[in-house]
Amino acid sequence: MEEPVGIKQIAQMANVSIGTVDRVLHRREGVSRHTRERVEAVIRKTGYKKNTAASRLRLGAHKKIRIAVLIPEVTNNWGYWELPKCGVEKAVEDLHDLGVRVSYYYFSDPVSFTKKSEQILGKEFDGIVTAPFFAEESKALLENCSDRNTPVVLLDTRVALEGANFICQDAHRAGMVAGRLLYGLAGENGLYIVVNLVNAGGLHENNRQREQGFRAFFDTDLPGKNVEIHTVDYPLDRPFDISPEIGKWLKDKRAKGVFVTNSRAYVIPGILRKYHVDNVHIVGFDLNRENLECLRNRDIFFLINQKPEEQGYLAVRGLFRYLTEKDASGLQADIPVEIVVRENLFTV
Amino acid sequence: MEEPVGIKQIAQMANVSIGTVDRVLHRREGVSRHTRERVEAVIRKTGYKKNTAASRLRLGAHKKIRIAVLIPEVTNNWGYWELPKCGVEKAVEDLHDLGVRVSYYYFSDPVSFTKKSEQILGKEFDGIVTAPFFAEESKALLENCSDRNTPVVLLDTRVALEGANFICQDAHRAGMVAGRLLYGLAGENGLYIVVNLVNAGGLHENNRQREQGFRAFFDTDLPGKNVEIHTVDYPLDRPFDISPEIGKWLKDKRAKGVFVTNSRAYVIPGILRKYHVDNVHIVGFDLNRENLECLRNRDIFFLINQKPEEQGYLAVRGLFRYLTEKDASGLQADIPVEIVVRENLFTV
DNA sequence: CTGAAAGCGCTTACAG
DNA sequence: CTGAAAGCGCTTACAG
């Protein structure tokens, strides 16, 4: 519990002015080798830690930090991106004093993504938060930002983009968790069905990785058992219903496990009821209203939360730290695979 | 994104000095009704929010906030309280600039608890963090603190203490979650065993509440099903082994669910192996080394984490907010019932 | 009851 | 290459 030593004491001990101490601390130019070394020695010896309150007061008052958030438009049947936005707003509330300002931009397809990207680039933001939904367009944005030294944080999905900063859940691992959970419910003789509900944009990278993780769980945890796993890709624009093949699986007497790789698990229970199928356990993603309703009714056993608010929150905080303290560690984060059941719902 | 309005602007608009604005903001005495109302109107109109960086710079430099942490001694076979301490240390790191200082005190029984409590009271700390393990002694401490207006935060266990501040997991709910999880694994025809491993201090309040929650799950979720649940209280000082009655349950062919209400779930798998019992699913608490080992070996299916580091962290932050901003909301917290399996272990 | 002023520790623009 | 000084927004001790 050594008492606070400040830049003033350092200056005194090293026989320099506080301005010089500051230059050394921030590794700025214009300090003679000799002086720098002397000051550095004192800094080390005293274990100096900067007073962030003072630093931020000064900084926040002078230079604003402007962050652009480019996310999918919230539509009637797709409210998910409200949540990262809530997290962003919370972070802005925390950091408003310290000069952080955010502007929102919305996209709905590759064209609008590119258009909004260009608007953002034109305004010279200090940092950008977005989601890498369109491979080419995202890459173009990242390259542009890399040239300008503008940090970018990508939420929700990890895609193959060299050197990019991701704040998202490891979808492969989430799939393995889903495997573990369903395996507990349906056992090694169970029949497993992976349901990819595909929307207009095609199969999402996250869904692919989740399915891979799910299958990897059974391959590594029960090697040689040859657990029966089927995949159903179903387009969301048609009313979901079942093919004869699926019908056959569902009539199977064994315990069944259904893994829905996106946030629409709630469509499944209705279909099962329609065909009087039972002994089915469902695991899905995301705490949307419909899924929660199913959890409460015990129609879904487990939901996996990817903590979208936290993603937004961490992205803004990470950018802030990077921009103010050159600390890049907060630009990436592995979001926990949070398991939700009916009983811990309101606590998670 | 309205631009920052500070106490200076408020003062100008209300035709008073900044000192007066400050008095109004902090509801301090010595402002005429008329002036106060005028200033309040301006504050409301402008939506003033205090700059916390400035406030804290000023405050932190002047008055230190001294917090005493009174927790169980860490022993060879009981390292749990390292974890809340880690959380406390993290909070202190975050808040050191802002004047927060912590001293640790350790107890091992009611006598040492009281002794250390008295030491703490003698030193006039600004706030106290402890654990309410001894009913009478805790009550005495709380009453003393209440007289002095010293805030106290209690970790780990919620006990019947009027008006106390708890930061802990809802043990009853955690028990319900355990019920849900084991029920998923062993089903309604399963045989369930609640294992209370009792140490020298007797059955802990948390264990009692967890068992109640576990039983409540079956009562409310499967009313009338009369699921078979047995309780085994076993003292930890003798080598754990099984009575003839327990032996009979274990030989039962049905799927079995074992709920260990404390952090010693890891003792169970060895016993099961010794008696060649299988088809048993185990749920326990806490991510200690031994339990994690069992999780990795697939001997334990689920662990429930009560996030001890977070408890310590939140306690210090909560006290800090209360002491600096009279905001008591952080003095209580309901810690999520976090579910851990082998596959999400390193992400939670 | 109210105001004027000092100062928290840091950063920066300016002067030399 | 280095120093002296101003000022971020708030809180408080002091003066009136």
Description:
2 copies of one chain form a homodimer. Chain A has 348 residues and is α/β, with parallel strands linked by helices. The first copy, chain A, has 3 domains: 44 residues, no CATH class; 121 residues, Response regulator (Rossmann fold, 3-Layer(aba) Sandwich); 135 residues, Response regulator (Rossmann fold, 3-Layer(aba) Sandwich), CATH 3.40.50.2300. Helices cover 45% and strands 19% of the residues of chain A. The first copy, chain A, is built from 13 helices and 12 strands. In chain A, the strands form 2 sheets. Chain A has a 6-stranded parallel β-sheet with strand order 2-1-3-4-5-11, with helices on both faces. In chain A, strands 7-6-8-9-10-12 form a 6-stranded mixed β-sheet, sandwiched between helices. In chain A, strand 6, helix 9 and strand 7 form a beta-alpha-beta unit. The first copy, chain A, is elongated, with a radius of gyration of 25 Å. The first copy, chain A, starts with 6 loop residues before the first helix and ends in an 8-residue tail after the last strand. The model of chain A has no long low-confidence stretch (mean pLDDT 90). At the A-B interface, helix 4, helix 8 and strand 12 of A face helix 4, helix 8 and strand 12 of B. Chain B binds a DNA duplex (16 and 16 nucleotides) through helix 2 and helix 4.
Q: What keywords describe this structure?
A:
homodimer, 348 residues, alpha/beta, Rossmann fold, 3 domains, six-stranded parallel beta sheet, six-stranded mixed beta sheet, elongated, DNA-binding
Q: How do the strands of the widest beta sheet of chain A line up side by side?
A: 2-1-3-4-5-11
Secondary-structure arrangement, i.e. CATH architecture of the largest domain in chain A = 3-Layer(aba) Sandwich
**In the CATH hierarchy, what is the superfamily of the largest domain in chain A?**
Response regulator
Largest interface (C-beta under 8 Å): A-B, 43 and 43 residues
N-to-C span of chain A: 35 Å
Q: Give the CATH topology of the largest domain in chain A.
A: Rossmann fold
Average pLDDT value of chain A?
Answer: 90
Provide the β-strand percentage band of chain A: 15-25%
What does the oligomeric state look like here? homodimer
